[in-house]
Design a protein that fits this description.
The protein has seven helices and seven strands; from the N terminus they run H-E-E-H-H-E-E-E-H-H-E-E-H-H. By secondary structure, the chain is α+β, with helices and mostly antiparallel strands. The strands form two sheets. It has a five-stranded antiparallel sheet with strand order 3-4-5-7-6. A two-stranded antiparallel sheet has the order 1-2. Helix 4 crosses helix 7 and helix 5 crosses helix 6.
Length: about 220
């Protein structure tokens, strides 16, 4: 080890736990006739750094994931008792969303926790052109669709994806455990009304995509 490296090791040994020193070695490498490119390598780091990085966030993440699992377990129980055709899931996921099959590949109904909001949606993730036509059809029928749903809906192209969605939102957070019963009520109610509105006016998702696939 160089004298600089030894000095950094010594500093890591004698300074307080809030101070960390790293040594980075920079080299130039070349493959064949290519131009030289920089290569960075950590040659000195605090002895406990890897352990600290691993321990920095998992407790909070694990706690949130556990909360999602507990919530979705209750959602599965509610769906089985009130809407048995919605899902066959047995194990609750440790994530902020829960997908419900719609009978078409890439398309699903879903409920989720977004940033300080709850979202209930129809996610259109099939073939891009068909997704756009289905969204345009539903948006053109907006007045009748929203009257059947019983409130406004959000029609959302997703520019960074081939998908789009129709969704409805309400405030809420997974941390508000005292409101979980109200969240469950809202998820079931909003999904029920959204499905009924689409089925009543368009014959369901399969029919919508069949028409979209044959249209030009």
């Amino acid at each position: 080890m160089t004298s600089i490296g030894a000095a950094l090791e010594w500093l890591n040994a004698v300074t307080d736990e809030n101070t960390r020193f790293f040594g980075i070695e920079i080299r130039l490498v070349r493959v064949g006739d290519s131009l030289p490119a920089p290569l960075f390598r950590v040659v000195v780091q605090p002895n406990d750094w890897r352990k600290r990085v691993k321990q920095a966030s998992p407790p909070a993440v694990a706690g949130r994931n556990l909360a999602y699992q507990q919530f979705w377990e209750r959602f599965i129980e509610r769906a089985r008792s009130q809407r048995p055709g919605w899902t066959r899931a047995r194990k609750p996921p440790a994530q902020n969303w829960f997908d419900l099959p719609a009978g078409v590949t890439g398309i699903y109904y879903g409920v989720s926790f977004s940033w300080k909001k709850l979202r209930s949606e129809l996610y259109l993730g099939g073939e891009a052109a068909a997704n756009d036509r289905v969204l345009a059809t539903l948006r053109a029928d907006r007045e009748a669709l929203e009257a059947a749903y019983g409130g406004p809906l959000s029609y959302e192209p997703l520019p960074d994806k081939i998908a789009c969605r129709i969704a409805v939102y309400r405030p809420g957070s997974i941390e508000d455990t005292e409101d979980w019963d109200a969240y469950l009520d809202w998820f079931v109610d909003s999904q029920s009304r959204l499905r009924k509105a689409i089925d009543a006016h368009h014959g369901g998702i399969s029919a919508l995509y069949q028409r979209a696939a044959t249209s030009t």
